[in-house]
Amino acid sequence: MNQHIQPVPLDKAYRLLTHGPTVLVSGHFEGVDNVMAAAWACALDFAPPKLTVVLDKATRTRALIEASGRFVIQVPTAALLELTNRVGNRSLDQHPGKLREAGVALLRLGGDTLPFVAGCAAWLECRLVPEPHIQATYDLFIGEVVAAWADERAFRDGHWQFENAGPEWRSIHHVAGGQYYAIGEALRAQED
Amino acid sequence: MNQHIQPVPLDKAYRLLTHGPTVLVSGHFEGVDNVMAAAWACALDFAPPKLTVVLDKATRTRALIEASGRFVIQVPTAALLELTNRVGNRSLDQHPGKLREAGVALLRLGGDTLPFVAGCAAWLECRLVPEPHIQATYDLFIGEVVAAWADERAFRDGHWQFENAGPEWRSIHHVAGGQYYAIGEALRAQED
């Protein structure tokens, strides 16, 4: 494993998503890996940490997650802008070589078949919390985070380090089409 | 009304939240206004536009929303950093003068009692979509956006204008405690 990838304590895992980055969602079932982009992912709880993610019915990744009950939410960086946009635009059904064409390299951080996208800033391994009504009605999925890791160059000691890292480490935040914003300047509010 | 506040077409309303800003949530019931901060808000659907927001059981704003079935999600700017942090830290129950002390000025953009926070970059007026099970189990609320507005200095022609506006107009993205990031540099992925 890359020496920079370090476990994140579960009580700090919510901080990986609280600032609202666009994420990559990955899953695996019966020998098939897939990765998609999702701008609509959000922290849901602190302990145990949970999150929500919107997965369209047309996506192959959703089918893998429904079949396996597991998935990974990972935070791509500005260095992965093109990769993120490509896996968001292309379906595995129409593009069987999608992951290779988008330059996706997979790690198996969790120690089994679940695929993690190399080069991200952080990874949250999730167990699907089944809620069939909201999955069917709103395409809304709930995950409980069972393990988390981050690249210490982007996140360490429980905090993002964007102001101390190169611009290629910034999280990216989708607007529409191919348009994104990188995360920006650190701001600190006064003690209340 | 401030001449810079313009309606946003409902089919573009999702773009106000897709980049993951921290928001202010406001509500009103029987003469009581309140405003809270929420980092865990997310777009949910395009048409009709919907969103999710996590509202802790201890918040007075949640009670107002459950009683009235209506709320506003608004996008504060870097200029409202202190206001946002204060309304996020203080409860109306312990601080009856909370809104005045935090410097909150309210507009009535919707034409009735629903309160909108002046100075924000965008406002989404929502109807609560009742889902009692996920409200009770996960503190997760779904809103359907029935009208939206933006300050044209920050969002116009269906797009955020952060790269063309002063830094005080940037959306803010919470990390933890008083720590936030402003949204940053515009990035454009290649056509696929």
TrEMBL record, chains A, B:
Cited InterPro entries: Flavin_Rdtase-like_dom, Flavoredoxin, Split_barrel_FMN-bd
Matches recorded under Pfam families: Flavin_Reduct
GO terms of molecular function: FMN binding; oxidoreductase activity, acting on the CH-NH group of donors, NAD or NADP as acceptor
Domain Flavin reductase like: 15-157
Cofactor(s) in the UniProt record: FMN
Keywords linked to the UniProt accession: Flavoprotein
Assigned protein family: Belongs to the flavoredoxin family.
PANTHER family: FLAVOREDOXIN (PTHR43567:SF1), FLAVOREDOXIN-RELATED-RELATED (PTHR43567)
Name of the protein: Flavin reductase family protein
